[in-house]
Amino acid sequence: MLNCAIIGGGPAGLTAGLYATRGGLKNVTLFEMGMPGGQITQSSEIENYPGFFEHDKTGMDFMDTWQKQCFYFGLKHEMKKVERVAKTGEHFTITLEGGESVEAMTVIVCTGSTPKRAGFKGEDAFFGKGVSTCATCDGFFYKNKPVTVLGGGDTALEEAFYLSNICSDVYVVHRREEFRAAPPTIERVMRKENIHLVTNSFIDEVVGNVMGVTGVNIKNNNGEITHMDNTGLFVFVGHNVNNSVLKDEKGEFICAMNDWGQVIVDLSMKTSVEGLFAAGDMRIQAPKQVVSAAGDGAVAALQVIAYIQEQS
Description:
The protein contains six helices and 17 strands. By secondary structure, the chain is an alpha/beta fold. Strands 1, 2, 3, 4, 5, 6 and 17 form a seven-stranded mixed sheet that branches.
């Protein structure tokens, strides 16, 4: 039996693994289908993590040392998909893809969230063929070409700035007049000559052919539509919570959730189920910052250690 099963390998999961193993727990396994790291591995630059201020380092570079450090202290990594978590008596049963199951005394769920679709015409048809949610992954394909970015938060403006160093022009489309991003981010974007802010507007349709996107139709709040020729559209309009592992066979959540599908936890990352913890972007009021997710993971692991000590 595992002392602790950690589901999800982003900053929260890795930090939980580090604190749990370095804190003396044995038999701690992190379940993550791919290599750990999380969404931050897709970022082009890390500016706001204390002590890490190297502009030539990507999110992948940033997370690489985390993995090595965690595995050094004994954290095990299983590349297996977790289907669900269930409380069985005093312990938990972790059901894996294919029907295999693992028993654990405690569970920390850190499955994060994934980018939302905006819902405009052609989004699904051209996803991966000109419609993208990752500027770092796909920006190079539009070198010296104009692109459009949809969104008004920190991520949208940060990725627009990144694209402005590759693309000829970046048009940021936002349905409101004011942006939700941090003031320094807005100021930096506004100073960039090839970034153009298109406010009070939204994407009505993305159009193209068998080769991919050829342009976008932008509609303003007055209903007027402007067609813009470009081959890339980057969408940053929020995230969906990856909470399916917390549903039972009937599709019901095993712990308390809010109306948006986020896990309700206290300051100790405890859920409504004893021995079950949640950390990172999937919890209520998550700031969706790496430093916060790491803090969540540390808190959850320390609580796991205390919980197991109380049981013995």
